[in-house]
Amino acid sequence: MREVELKSVVDDVMIRRQLVELAGGRLLYEGSLEDLRYDNAARELSEKDEVLRLRVYGGIESTHAFLDWKGRTTFQDGYKVREELSSQVGSVAVFKTILENLGYVVIAEIGRWIAQYQLGEATVRFERYPQMDDLVEVEGEPEEIEAA
Fold it and tell me: If phi over 0 gives left and psi between -120 and 50 gives alpha, with beta otherwise, what is residue 40?
């Protein structure tokens, strides 16, 4: 699957969320989101600009989690584009152990609060980080991103 996205700093999350809702956006999820990025000791994935990520919604005890692989980043007409494969994970603890037993280690942990919407065919996600600017990410095909 091909991931196409735009990401930007957002000036006021609450106002922008209201605008998305007024435009017909449907709230899909609001709460914590934690990404655990994995690589091997030689950092072979990072060297190839690939990402192996365990994404957990709602805290580490959650069963709402996904394992994602992302290919090399390219940019087309201002959009960030990369191949992405994703599958839901039943037990975060078991899957973490599987990855560790395969020789992968956590190289980055990224925790944040999000509000994720469906707006037309695009996904709009507002992200609040503890020590970074607030961001908005819009994902979909270019025409869907522009419509959102």
Answer: beta
pTM to 2 decimals? 0.89
What distances in angstroms separate CA 43 from CA 8, 65, 84, 106, one per listed residue? 28, 24, 19, 11
Would you write out the chain's pLDDT as a tens digit for each of its 148 residues? Answer: 899 999 999 999 999 999 999 999 999 999 999 999 999 999 999 999 999 999 999 865 666 899 999 999 999 999 999 999 999 998 899 999 999 999 999 999 999 999 999 999 999 999 999 989 999 999 999 999 999 8
Q: Fold for domain 2-147?
A: Hypothetical Protein Pfu-838710-001 (2.40.320)
CA distance 86 to 46: 18
Looking at residue 59, the DSSP 8-state letter turns out to be S
